[in-house]
Amino acid sequence: MSRLASAPRSLSERLLIALALVLSGLVLVVPLLLIFATALREGIGVYFSNILEPNTVHAIWLTVLTALVVVPINMVFGVCAAWLVTRFRFPGRQLLVTLIELPFSISPIVAGVTYLFLYGGQGLLGPALQSVGIQLMFTVFAIFLVSLFVTAPFVARELIPLMQQQGSEDEEASLSLGANGWQMFWYVTLPNIRWALLYGAVLCNARVMGEFGAVSVVAGSIRGQTNTLPLQISQLFNDFNVTGAFAAASALALMAVVTLILKSVLGRNVGRG
Asked: Are 128 and 54 in contact (CB under 8 A)?
């Protein structure tokens, strides 16, 4: 333990810590408690009847399914992008880094509208796709597409700085010892980046499950078909079913809490690694 960490705290430090705790409680804890209090205000039976309502169950399932599809794809993309950026020098490398960051600078609603203009019935590619019997917009596949776009940078952003810092000496040593490319990746590169990879996956998962703007444009908000959990919450609230909306929101909040715990645990491991 450092001398600074073991020194007694001054009054100003204690006041700042107390202020941070109070603000954190007001911003994070109080809204979370309010969600569950409102969801449970009519009793546990009503709460579970709202959670188990078929459209809400489908929305939960679709949200989880989207995460199961999108997160692994973005993990693979993130590893490939980080490998390319950190291990090779080529013309357009900085442009590639900028393109990887692009989804962060675009509003999710704008991203959704862009996909609608590309693949919608009156869009650039929509008529050609429909002529061969393919419809993307207002389907589950549209949700997958926009979710992939808005979450694409998360894994790569965690891996690129780490792999730049680590350098390529370990990989070069493994190649000099006779390892092939797959062995080098599996036994050298992956162990070195595993915590950052998982950390980026958790961040990606959090964004996928909570995404509203882009999904609301391309999903069509069809009850029991293309409603993710955030869209279902919005529709329940607009229907003045406040208890049902907060019950669905509590399910999303539980997912967020689990994600936060995983993020905290993995963040410590990334720091140690």
From this structure: no
**What rounded mean pLDDT belongs to the chain?**
89
Share of the chain above pLDDT 70, in %: 94
Closest C-alpha among 201, 218, 248 to residue 108: 218
Tokens of 10: 């001054």
- pTM for this structure? 0.87
The owner of tokens 């703007």 is 213
Nearest to 209 by CA among 148, 254, 252: 252
Spatial contact of 233 and 252, defined as CB atoms under 8 Å apart: yes
For the stretch 70-90, pLDDT in tens is 999 999 999 999 999 998 888
152-180 burial, b for 16+ CB within 10 Å, e for fewer? Answer: bbbbbbbbbebbeebeeeebeebeeeebe
Q: How many residues belong to the chain?
A: 273
Cα 120 from Cα 115, distance rounded (Å): 7
Per-residue confidence at 172, pLDDT binned at 50, 70, 90? confident
Lowest mean pLDDT among 8-12, 161-165, 226-230, 254-258: 8-12
